[in-house]
Amino acid sequence: MESKRWNECPLHGAGVRPDYLVGRRLEGVLASWHLYGGQQRSGPLDVWLIDSAEAATHVTTGSDWCLIVETSLPFRGYDMAELGRIEVAPAHGETPFASHLGERVLAVREETDPDLGRLALEITFGSGRVRCDTWSGDLRLSSE
């Protein structure tokens, strides 16, 4: 019997261990939003953290409400006809990461469940922390 990794989601796998971010500087943040009609942006669906090594760390939620953390390039936005569209763009001030641009990551901490996988990710900068977690399947970002 093969043992399961400590942060592995049964549906989406383990993703990456985000401790590789420690020591890297946050250079940019991109996000995706679901827009319908004339709605304003609210809470991103995905974020990509672009670091000083030019790696893109993708943070999003899985269909089983786990928190997915993987290295992948941002995708392009797309149109879903009557269901609206997905827009992908730089997140200028629309996420808690904006106030940490240019700062180095000092630490990362994950919260996991043996049956569900990763539930939360906390990234610590010199000026504060950003917590990424899920709530009812939605990505939640908050500052501490």
Structure description:
This protein has 144 residues and is mainly β. It has one domain (18-143). Helices cover 0% and strands 47% of the residues. The strands form two sheets. The chain has a six-stranded antiparallel β-sheet with strand order 4-3-2-1-6-5, with no helix packed on it.
Number of strands: 10
Shape: globular
Oligomer: single chain
* Uncertain segments: none
Our Rg estimate from Cα atoms comes to 15 Å
Distance between the termini: 41 Å
Number of helices: 0
* Estimated share of beta-strand residues: over 45%
Overall structural class, as computed from helix and strand content, comes to mainly beta
Helix proportion: under 10%
Q: Record the strand order, biggest sheet.
A: 4-3-2-1-6-5
> Main β-sheet, in a few words?
6 strands, antiparallel
- Note the run of SSEs as H and E: EEEEEEEEEE
Q: Average pLDDT, to the nearest integer?
A: 88
Number of domains: 1
